[in-house]
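To fix ideas, we reproduce below a protein record of this kind.
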Amino acid sequence: MTHSPVSARTVRHATRRAPRWFGMIPALLPALLFLALVVSPPLNQDVAAVLSFAERMVGGEQLYTDLIDVNPPLVFLLNLPPAWLASVTPLDGVQALLLCLLAFSGLSGWMCWRLAPPRGVAEAAMMLALLPLVLLVAGYDFGQREQIMAAAALPYLFLAERRVEGPGPGVAGVGLVLAMPGHWRGAFGGSGRLLVAGTVLMAAIGFALKPHFLAVPALVEGVVLLASARRHGWRAALRDPVPWSLAALWLLYVAIVAIGFPAYFGEVLPLVWDYYIGLGGAPWWQVLLTEQLFTAAVMTVALAGFTFAIGTRTLGWLPRLLAVAALGALAAALVQHKGWSYHVVPVWMWGGLVGGIAMARAADALLPAPLAGRLAPLMAAAATIGLTLLVIRGGEAPWREFNYDQGPAGRIAAWLEKRVPDGRLLVLSPDIYPAYPALNYAENRPVLRFMSTWLLQAVYRSCPADGARFRAPAQMGPAERYLFEGVAQDFTEHPPAAVLVARDAGISWCANQPFDMVAYFTRQPRFAAMWRQYRQTGEIEGYMLFERIQ
C-alpha cells in the first residue's frame, strides 16, 4: 500500500490552522444544540396544523371550501412540497417538512455568504458560528411564519448593504456591479443574476406571509433610499429595481389569491374582521409589557441606537440594516396584539446578528489582523452562547423537547398511536395544541374542516340574551350556524375512529353552567345520532377520549 507524499509546507499550514478550528468548537456547539432541538418532537402546534391541512390538500380537499382557516393561502402552498414528498416517499409528514425547512435554511445561509463574504478573519469566524445558530434559534417555533420570513429575508438584508455600499472585493460569482447604488449595470454573471433574482423572490415570498411583515421592507427600503439619494441623488436612488420588483411580486400574489382562492376574500376574510381580530387580543402597550415583547423591545432599541451612534465607516451598513429590520419585526409583533413567543423570533434572529457582526467588524477594523484572528473564536463563542442564553431563558425550547413524552402532546400521541393508528380523528378543542402535533405523529387524518373551535369562542364572548347556556338554532347568527352545521356534517359524512374533546371550551360560564361542547353539538340531530356510537375510554390533561364502538 502506497501513500501520496505530503509536503512540509502543507503540514505546517494544517498545524497553524488546527488550533483555530479547535478553538471554534465552543462557538459551534449552540447551533448543534438547536439543530438537535429542531429535529426533536414536538413540532410546533401551528406548524403541525398547517402541515395537516396541506396533506389534506394533496389528498384532494380544497382550501377555503373543504378546509377553513383564517390564514391567507401562501403558507399552505409552501407546505405542499413536503406534504407531497411525504405522500410519495417513506418519510412521514413531519420528517418531510423538517427536511425541507432545513434545506431552505441552508440555502438562505449560503446566499448570505455569497452576497456579502466576510471582510476579515473575525467576521468570518462570527459568520461561521452565528449564521447557522440564527437560522435554527427559533427552536420550538421553527417553521412558524415568522421564522420562515426572517430566514427568507436574511439574503435580502445582506443584499441591501451591497445596494448601499456598492460591490466589494472578492465577491466571486455574484457579478454584481453598480454604477451607483440603486442602479444596476453591466457585468452580471449568469449565476450572479440568478442569485440576486432569487434573493428578491425569496424575500417577497417571506414578507407576503403576513401583511404585518411589510413593516420590515418598508423601513429597510426607506434607509436604502435615503442613503442612495444622499450619495447619488434621488433620480438614481429611485431607479433601484429591488423595491419595484418586490411590489410587483406582491401585487401578483394578491391577484393569484383573488383568482385562485375567491372564497378567501368572499367568505373567510369577513370572518376574520368580524370575529378573529378581536378574539383574545390585548392593547399594544400591554403586549409590550409581556416577558417576550419587553425583552425583545429593549434589545432592539438598544442595538438600533448603538448602530446609529457608531456609524457605518467602521461597521458597514449591515448592522444598521439588521437593526432597522428588527424594529420592523417588533412593530409587526405589537400590532398582532398577542405577545406570543414566535412573534419575536425575527427580533432574536436579526438582533443576534447585529451584535455579533458589529463586534466582529469592529475587531477587524480596529485591531491588528493577528490579534483579531486570535480573538475571533472567543468573540464568536461569546456571541453564540449569549444569544442562546437570551433565547432559552423562560422560552419554549428546550423545555418542550425535554418534557415531550410526559406532556399532553406526547401522551395523546402515544394513546392515538396505540388505539387508532392512521385512523380518522375528530377534534373539538378551542386550542390547536396538543391535538396538533399529536395527530401528526400518530398520522391520524382529522375530519373537521376547522383547525379548532375558535369561532365558537368568538360568538360566545357574551352570554345569550335569554339567559340560556346555548342559543337555540333559530337564534344563531350565520357564523354560529355555519359552525354548528359544519361540525355535524363533517362528523356524520366522515365518521372518525376516535373523537378528542377539550373539557375546557375556553368560554365563560353562563346560566351557572360551563360550556360543554358535547352537549352543545348533540343538539344537532345528525350529530346526536352518530354520537351514540361513541364511548369515552379515557382522559389526558383535560382532553376526553372517545372511541367508536363497532
